Amino acid sequence: MKYSGKLPATILGLGLLGSAATAPLRAATSVTCSSPVRAQPRPTEYFISLADNTRHLAHVSLRFSQASGTLTLNMPVWNALYQVRDFAAHVANVRATDAGSRPVPVLSRQNSQWEVVATTPCVVVEYDIYLDNSGPFGAQLDQEHAFFNWAMVLMYSPATRSQAMSVQLLDVPATWAMRDLHVLGEAPAGRVENAVGTAAGYDQLVDSPVELGVFQRFDFQQDGATYHVVVHANPSDYDAAKLEDALRRITRVAVDWMGDRPFDEYTFLYHFPRGHGAGGMEHAYGTAIDLNAERLNSSLLPVASVSAHEFFHLWNVKRIRPQSFEPIDYQRAIDTRALWFSEGVTSTVGDMLLARAGLISDRQYIDRLAAEIDELQARPAHRWQSAEDSGLNAWFEGIAYYHTPQRSISYYNKGGILGVLLDLRIRQITQGRRSLRDLFQWMNHHYARKGLFFPGSLGVEQAAEAVTGQGFADFFHDYVADVRELPYNDFFGFVGLQLAETAVRTLTPGFATSSFLGSPPEVTSVDPGSEAERGGIAVGDRILEINGRPAVAPLENQWARSREGSSVKIRVADRRGGRNVRVKLSARETHAYILEDTPSVTPQQRTHREAWIHGDDEPGGQP
Ligand SMILES: [Zn+2]
User: Rounded to whole angstroms, how far apart are CA atoms 106 and 304?
Assistant: First the structure.
């Protein structure tokens, strides 16, 4: 996944208040044991009615045709994000009936779990679920569209989780079309109810979110595959031709780089909202991406960057998959130390693909990398939180303090840098004849294509040793598992670059904030003696507005074009309520890391650099 701390807010339950007495426009189609199905009957059948979309309520019926004894039903507590979000909190009015449509008792013995005693082989369990969490990590039903990550919508029975199941959508508004990321396929407007999907099991189903509504779409063919592009946005907010060109380039170079195309169809699903929105979620046969429409106006790079990252995930994490993810436990937070690789090194490759596709220049590639190094080195926590541990602690990311520079680093950030250093080390050892490309192809061949999961960091280390014939224990011990300072210039010398510092001036309001999942930015530090401190801004305060506009992280963007000394009106909320504070932006002298040429760059170093940035191996046969 990829998010940038600016996700849309979840406003739990607010839509229910005041509208509870409002009847749905259409009654939900009722499902009984004798209701017909369009698909071949499966042991578990889901029916989802969208009749009550104005109140964000989906009506779910689960029909079990082979039940006996006590039937257990679970609602996942997490999905998509490494955050326990207790989706059961949105579930209301759970009830069940038997083959004769007689009520069957439903007991809730623990949170997120229900029990139904089946008195007949067929049992129908029904509930309503409130869905108004937008974005690629959410589930939303409203008058305009529906987007479902199924794990946030559908209960499952542990006993039948791995068996075939079907999904049928009911009461879909007549003008809506449908596209999902694998299982259901697509249905044009007005015929959505004819689209019945089947999945091999719950894991496959929840990896295939669906979009319903009125959207734009186009397809393109390339190298034998069909790519579907679905965009829910104002058509004037983006340039479809440019988007298609970028996606054609990214998909072509990625498939070529991996020497593998483990799909015939792949779907890019975009939302470009005018307000909040930033992030992408990978799936085996597609990706769901949200980006702020205003960011698209100035450059295609943000959407190309997220798209490249998510597309590469179809290999790294969806198929080249760490053992710690399997089997997925939907009922509790999982422990994994592999995110530095599964997320961070996906970013390494994502940027390389942009360069390889000609979407960024070599200089841009190097500057983006230097900015990542600057970010890591500026956080004191890089001295006490390892790359592995930052992934293990992903579950803390909903807590503002966790984002402070003294508490955490990002596994995207350090993992992305480690991917670069690993690539350079492999190239050094083999004089450029082997690279990160060989490492990924080796892992694809030895794990993904054999249906095996890799043993975390150890599996990556073994892959690096296999493609170079040399030991990597020190690299993985010192830089992945431990917190040894990264000796950058030992790596960058191979491509004629060195890390240097340069003085920069930045504007600051006198305080720093962090934000997660669209919550208002929270103050995490206040500069001593600053105007912000004198104005009473304190750690823990929430920043609601800047100059009368909603505060969206990162706040720096909102005064990027301001001058030193200009005044900013800030709406702050603290324990006592809301108030306005005026602060002047002051300039801060600081330094930033840059990557520059070493004093004399040899032609050979330039050749190595060119191959490194574009992800190529250099000729020369076996190392
Ligand atoms: Zn990712």
Answer: 48
